[in-house]
Design a protein that fits this description.
about 260 residues, mainly alpha, two-stranded antiparallel sheet, 2 strands, globular
């Protein structure tokens, strides 16, 4: 857990610092990075998270409800954050879908999103732990793959997210406050991981409670990844480079899912 905590924190911190110290950058390349990260996130959600959730769940229909709920919740969080988790870079003091959006609104939406995704890495109640225990009770063995792949996918998403956040904040508040808010954001996912793990080990939160979080995060990932993919071609034109990058991301996700 210490390793996961540190790598989650420093990935967000370093990606945000990159935007902090490089005020000028080519948005085209950033969008291509987003497409790769979004495609990879979609792939691991379909290949890794959803299958294990439905295999472990005693009520697949209820799990489907949690996923749908997470999808809708992410829509609300995206309204608060102006879609920074999708890589959107807007001035925060503007009307966003009829709602006045400011720095604190963005931080609240983004922090809650990052906090929830950190719960996927809960150790004893992890997806890997769920599936392993399920197989033991079923009387057969199952060699689990993909825990590290899940972490890698979250990190791929975390980098562009932190970069976009700093790019948004840089045009709105003083630089010293930008770094302070970046540190707060960088702690969000590690805090979600640590708190959910503590609540599970202390029997405050049972397996069913963790399933709610897992399903909601999976729904949020579906929302984010599909939004990135479709918004990369807003005019519905065919862009070969973006399709190629998506294919590469899918292929890498499949390969690492088999190897890790």
């Amino acid at each position: 857990m210490t390793f996961n905590f540190l790598i989650l924190f420093f990935t967000a911190l370093l990606a945000g610092c990159l935007a902090y110290f490089i005020p000028r950058w080519d948005e085209r390349y950033f969008k291509l990075v987003l497409v790769f990260a979004g495609s990879y996130l979609f792939a691991i959600t379909v290949l890794h998270i959803l299958p294990e959730l439905f295999v472990e769940s005693s009520d697949p229909t209820k799990m489907g409800f949690y996923i749908l709920l997470g999808f809708l919740l992410q829509q609300i969080l995206a309204l608060l954050s102006t879609g920074v988790e999708h890589g959107h870079i807007h001035h925060p003091d503007h009307q966003h879908h009829g709602m006045q959006v400011g720095v604190w609104t963005i931080m609240i939406g983004l922090f809650l999103h990052a906090f929830l995704e950190g719960t996927l890495l809960t150790e004893d109640g992890s997806l890997a732990g769920h599936l392993h225990e399920h197989d033991e009770h079923a009387g057969h063995s199952h060699h689990h793959h993909g825990s590290n792949n899940l972490l890698f996918g979250i990190l791929l998403h975390k980098g562009p997210e932190a970069f976009a956040l700093v790019a948004v904040l840089m045009v709105s508040i003083k630089k010293r406050w930008v770094f302070a808010l970046l540190v707060v954001f960088a702690f969000a996912s590690p805090m979600g991981m640590v708190l959910s793990n503590y609540m599970y080990e202390s029997n405050i939160l049972g397996r069913e409670g963790l399933n709610v979080f897992y399903g909601m995060v999976a729904g949020g990932f579906l929302h984010i990844s599909t939004t990135i993919f479709f918004e990369s071609s807003p005019d519905h034109r065919f862009y070969f480079n973006k399709v190629l990058i998506s294919i590469l991301a899918f292929g890498l996700a499949v390969l690492l899912e088999m190897l890790l």
